[in-house]
Amino acid sequence: MSDYKHLLRPITLRGKTYRNRMLAAPTGYFSFATSLDAPYYRMIEERAAGGFASVCSGEITVNSADAARGFENVDIPDESGEFFPRARKAASLIQSHGAIAMMELSHLGSIGTPHPKNAHPWGPVSFTKEDGTQVIGYTRQMMDKTIQDFCDCARYAMHAGFDGVLIHGGHGWLFSQFLSPLENTRTDAYGGSLEGRMRFPLELLGALRTAVGEDFLIELRISGSDRWPGGTTAEDMAEFSTRLSGLVDILHISSGHYYRSYRTLEFSSLYTRHNCNADTAAVIRRKCPRDVKMGLIGGINSPEDAERMLAEDLVDFVIVGRQAFADPEFMNKVAAGRADDINRCLRCMRCYAGSHEHEKELAYLEKYHITKEMELARDAERSACHSYHAYCTVNPVTWGIGFCERPEFPPMESPKRVLVVGGGIAGLSAARYACDRGHQVTLAEKNSRLGGILYFLDHDKAKYDLRNFRDLMIRRVQERPIEVLLNTTVDEAFIQSFHADIVMLAVGSEPNLPPIPGVEKALPAQDAYGMGSRLGEKVVILGGGMVGAETAIELAEEGCDVTIVEMAERLILEARNMAFTCVMDKLDELGVRSFVNTKCLAVTDSGVEVQDEDGAIFTIPADGVVCALGLKSLRSEVERLRAAVPAGTEVVELGDCHAVDRVGDANLDGYIAGNMIR
User: Fold this and answer.
1) What are the strands of the beta sheet with 127-128, ordered from one edge?
2) What is the pTM of this model?
C-alpha cells in the first residue's frame, strides 16, 4: 500500500481531533518524570513530534496507599504538590507538537506488593498470597473510595491540561480482577455472573464520566482475553463492551496477565504472530457499540498491517508500545512516503524483560535464591564493557540510552576523512552517522556483501524483522554519499596509503573453537541456517546459549531431529524472563532434546562423545554437528591494523572486535562513534 489513507485519516471525538489513527501506548511510569526527568520528557516529546495521534503519559496509580507501587512517591492528586507542575509540563509538551495528551491511571488491586504504604493490597476477595501477603476483599466503603480516587485523579489530569485519561483495566489489574471468574469469587451482587462481575467497573466508569463531563476523553484498556483457562474470554469482553456507550471513547484491546506476560500475549516475541490480538478484537468488534471506538495493540510494527486492519474495519485505531521506541517518527515517515525507512520493532525483549514464567527458570531461581537485584547486577556487569547501554536494538537514538547517562556529542569542527573497516552492523551504523555529520566516509568490507555475520538471516524463518533491519541498515549506507568498497581486504599498506583522519575498526568476530578433538568437523552455527537437509536427520548442537538454542529452533523447523549439549546446568543462562521463556517454549514445542551438565569430549564421524555430570561417557548419534560455543573478537587483526595506522591518527574499535555482544550494542557503538567525530 502506498497512500495509507485509512491510517492517515483524522477523527474527532468530544471536540478533540486525532490527526491519524495510530496511538502511542503508555510505556514505563509517569513517575519517571520525577526520577528520570529529562529522558522521560524526551521520550514523550519524540513521540508527539514523530506524528502519533496521541501520546500517553505512562501508568500512575490513583493514590499513595492501597493503589500504590512500592517505588512510586508521587503526590497525585494533590494539585498543590510537587508533581503537578511536571504533569502540566508533560501535557504541554505533547500538545505543542499537535498530539492529544492522555494520562494513564491505574489501580493494581490484589497484584500490589506489600510496603509501608500498602501492607494489605485490596482485591475482589480476601485471600493470602503464596508469599504470605494478605489481600483484603473490597467492601462497599472501599469501592466508594476507589471510585472517588479515580474521579479525583481524572480531574487532576484535566486541570493539568491533559485531553483525557486512559484507565488501565487489563493485564490482571483491578478491573481485570473483578471481571475474571478465577479471581472474583464473590457471592454478592459484585460477583457470580458476568453481569455481577462487571458491576463495579461500570459503576466506576459511570462516576468518572459524570466527574469529568462531556468534553473530556476517557479511554479504557482491557485484556480482550485473559488467555488463561478459566479466565475472561473474548466473548465476555464483547458483552462487557456493550455497556460502555457514552462512558468510554476508545476501548484498547490488549491481552493477557502481568504475571504470565509472555504466555498470555501481554507481550509477544519473534516467535509470535504479529497483530496477535486481532482474533479477540474481531470477536469484540461484533458487539461493541460504534460510538465506542476500538483500538488494537499487540506485536504491531508494520504500517501495511495497520492500514489493512483499519481498511477492513477491524478497529478504528492501531496502538503501538515497543514500536514507539523503535521508531518514534513512525507516522511522520508514513505521511512523508518514507514507510520503508521505519525501524520495525524486533520484539527482542531488550526494552522490557517481562515476568519469569518457564518452569526451568523458576526452578533455577528458587534453587539459587536469585533475586531481582541479583539479576540487575548481572545485567550491569554484562553491559560494563560498553560506555552506554543499548535500550533498543534498532534505534540507538531513542529514550533508551534511557535509564543511563546519554552522551553529549561535540560540535563538528571540520569534515574529516573517515575509514570504516568492516561492513557489519557496527560499521554500517558508524558510516551512516559519520556521514550525516558531514564527514567523508569510506567503508571497506572484505566480503562481497554488507551485513557482516548477519548473512545467516537469509535463511532464518523467525527473524525476518531482524533481516529487514539488516537490509535497512545497508540501504541507508547505499543511499548516502558513502564510498563502499566490497571485496576489499584492508591491510597495512591500504591503511598507510589511505591517509585517513580517523580509522574505525569494525572487523567483527569469529567462531570460538575450543580444543575438542574433531571439532573442525562441526559447522559454525551461523553457517547452519538453511543447511538442515545437508546436515542430515540427526543433528547435535554444541552449546546451549542463545545462539545454540535459536539455531536448534531453525534446524528443527527445517525437519532435523535436534539435540543440544550444554556444559552448564541450564540452557540459555544469559537470558531471563520473557527472553528465556519464548525460546524455551519454542524448543519444547519442537521437541528439541538437551543434555545439560554435559561436556563434549570429541566429535566423531558417528556423532558426539560426551560425559555427563556423573562421569558417564556415551555417544550421541549425529549425522551432522553444529558448533555454537560462542564467538571471539578478532583481536589479532585489530592489533595488526592498529599498528599500521600512522601516528596521530585516531583509531576507534566498534562492535564485536571490541566486545562480542548483541546487535543493539554494535548499532549503539556505531551511533556514538560516528557522532563523536569532531
Assistant:
1) 122-123, 134-137, 127-128
2) 0.95
